[in-house]
Every structure is written in structure tokens, then in C-alpha cells.
Amino acid sequence: QVQLMESGGGLVQAGGSLKLSCVSSTSIFNMNFMGWGRQAPGKAREVVAAITSVGTTYYAASVKGRFTISRDNSKNTVYLQMNSLKPADTARYYCALDEDGRSHPPVYTFGSWGQGTQVTVSM
What we know:
Largest sheet: 7 strands, mixed
Distance between the termini: 40 Å
Structural class: mainly beta
């Protein structure tokens, strides 16, 4: 089973930036959809960004224009560049993989998730 390992979270002031990384234990070259989700305490998990194997990207309205998802197939890594961070972005961020390629944005079928990395944005 594929393992996903996130890193790059931390504490940042509002208006700041962070870049998250997610390394897959297996090749992501043929993986159609990879993405990032987040979950804040007491809230449901939401997908904030996704990217296809050919580089097409999708974003939730709440992060569009501020977050950028990218992938480096040679490193089996997906990134999430987060700019202009807001306190409302505070959450645990998870990397996700749709191995079967059944996602149809904005509906995603991510079957594998990482353990997550905490992002905290202070006022």
C-alpha cells in the first residue's frame, strides 16, 4: 500500500507563506489525481487543491489565487505553496492520492491519505 509523508507545516503569521511537501513511497508518474486536503478542529475535511498527471490543477474557492499545487514526478513529490495565509487556513493538511483516477472535480475519490502536517496561522 502506498505511503504518503507530508512535511513543511508550522506556525506562521497572517500574510506569511509556507510550502508543504508530500513524498510518495511509490512512483506517482501514472497517478492521475493527487491532492491536498485539510481539516480544522470540529470541521469536516475539505480538499483544497488537486493536480492531474498532465498538470491540470483545481482549487477550492477559499484558496484560489493564494495556494499553488505542483508535482515533481521524478521525486515522487507533490507540493502545496501557500501564500497570503489567513487564520482561517489553520488546519491539519493531508496529502491524498486517487490511484484509480475516478475523481471528477469538485468530487474526489482519494483512497490514500498521509498522516498530515499541522499549519497554524496567527493573527
